[in-house]
Amino acid sequence: MNEFGREKSEPEDLISENVEYEMEIDISNVDAFPRVEEADFANSREKFVTMIGSWRREGNTVFIQADGVLDCSDDPKIVSQSPGGGELIVDYAQIERFLDEVKSMNIKMSGMETIGDVHTHPYRSASELGRDPWLPSTTDIEEVIKACESGWLLKDRPYVFGISALSKEGKQTMAFYRIIRGKDGKLMPKAFNNWAWSKKDR
């Protein structure tokens, strides 16, 4: 009950499409984010990093602060190639275990959480994919939704995933997405553009 004797409404969970996301990324980490390089085109190798930081909620807006990046590209416990090659299969539970190990060795990171990830799409143009390279693939979407349904990505915890690719002009670009529950009850990706690099006070 609130002060007027009415029932309090429960806040909407974080995968509701009515909840907005905003994110700032510490610009000191700009070089740690994966980039598509010339050698990647030959083997279609995707790179993968985990973003760590903190978040808070104010009403129906979630503010995410990405303070660091952990490169998981070469960790076979976390990422593996899909049966057809190229695309990555991610074990999200192993990411959390990896972060726990890192935090146990670095007290400055003790308050950080896993708040998202970024991986590359090493394709030169939309013609190679049938879609723009910064859009998530079917595998990308299925892997994140599977993590949501298994309980690893919970409705009371924000998680974003980004794709690093080359634009039509050949420039590195990143696009970010989150998972929402649509009006039909199904989970689906939603792009969000309200993010920016920031300079964190030291």
Provide a compact summary of the structure.
The protein has 202 residues and is an alpha/beta fold. It has a single domain (20-197), classed as Cytidine Deaminase, domain 2 (3-Layer(aba) Sandwich), CATH 3.40.140.10. The protein contains three helices and ten strands.
Can you give a write-up of this model?
This protein is of the alpha/beta class and 202 residues long. The protein has a single domain, classed as 3-Layer(aba) Sandwich (Cytidine Deaminase, domain 2), CATH 3.40.140.10. It is built from three helices and ten strands, in the order E-H-E-E-E-E-H-E-H-E-E-E-E. It has an eight-stranded mixed sheet with strand order 9-8-7-6-2-3-1-10, covered by helices on one side. The chain is globular, with a radius of gyration of 18 Å. It starts with 19 loop residues before the first strand and ends with a strand.
